[in-house]
Design a protein that fits this description.
The chain is of the alpha/beta class and 211 residues long. It contains eight helices and eleven strands. Strands 2-3-1-4-11-5 form a six-stranded mixed sheet. It has a five-stranded mixed sheet with strand order 8-7-9-6-10. The protein starts with a strand and ends with a helix. The structure holds 1-O-pyrophosphono-5-O-phosphono-alpha-D-ribofuranose. 1-O-pyrophosphono-5-O-phosphono-alpha-D-ribofuranose binds next to strand 9 and helix 6.
Length: 211
């Protein structure tokens, strides 16, 4: 059991891209590509076990050692600040965290700016760095609705193509931080399974540099 490397991947398109990278460095697990609803897959031949976790839960599995390594967006690392090693920028899942809203919405100064977001820590840190007082309205998704129905003045959210903003009549107002997927490791697991994780990391680093 203990010589398996347990890998938490974010369920969805990013996880599939991440799995493709692991496959290319020799950690295939063919069962994972079958159409079914299983969540854990292992390959005895190369001693890897993959879990499909909710993207926001990957760092929890890794921090607590249920997974040795994982793939997670920088947005989640900045928001949750888990106690893990961030090993590598995988160069996939690229997007940006931005302030958005109706044109000029961030310039109003007559009252405290109301900011709707799924990322309250990122938003708080960003506005603290600007010495600006704000009120956070924590939502769980479809954040773009908030300024449209006057729940908030602006949003702090992920922008990838900009299509969601555009189709809802909103504009990017300021960039907060660029985002991409990161390879992370459990601190104890990294020491305990050092040889295997380090060799995976070296191969992954070479592959990412090629891309
Ligand atoms: C994300 C994000 C934006 C959208 C940005 O939402 O919150 O709404 O994607 O992508 P775009 O710039 O390419 O349009 P997601 O679909 O993950 O769902 P959510 O609304 O639940 O956050």
């Amino acid at each position: 059991m203990t010589d398996y490397v347990n890998i938490a991947l974010p369920k969805g398109r990013l996880g599939e891209k991440a799995y493709a990278l692991f496959e290319r460095i020799g950690f295939a697990c063919p069962d994972i590509l079958e159409e079914n609803r299983r969540l854990i897959f292992e390959n005895e031949a190369n001693r890897v076990r993959y879990f499909w976790a909710k993207p926001a839960d990957v760092a929890i599995y890794v921090e607590r050692g249920a997974a040795d390594i994982g793939v997670v967006g920088k947005d989640i690392l900045l928001e949750q600040e888990p106690d893990v090693y961030e090993l590598l920028d995988l160069g996939i899942g690229k997007c940006r965290m931005a302030v958005a809203g109706p044109r000029g919405a961030d310039r109003r100064t007559d009252r405290t700016l109301r900011v709707a977001t799924k990322f309250p820590n990122i938003a708080r840190n960003y506005y603290a760095s600007q010495s600006r007082e704000i009120e956070i309205i924590k939502l769980n998704g479809s954040i773009e609705i908030a300024p449209l129905v006057e729940l908030s003045d602006v949003i702090v959210d992920i922008v990838e193509t900009g299509k969601t903003l555009k189709e809802n009549g909103l504009e990017p107002l300021a960039d907060v931080v660029p985002i991409s997927a990161r390879l992370i490791a459990n601190k104890a697991g990294y020491r305990f399974k050092h040889r295997r994780i380090e060799s995976m990391l070296e191969q992954m680093r070479a592959l990412v540099a090629e891309n």
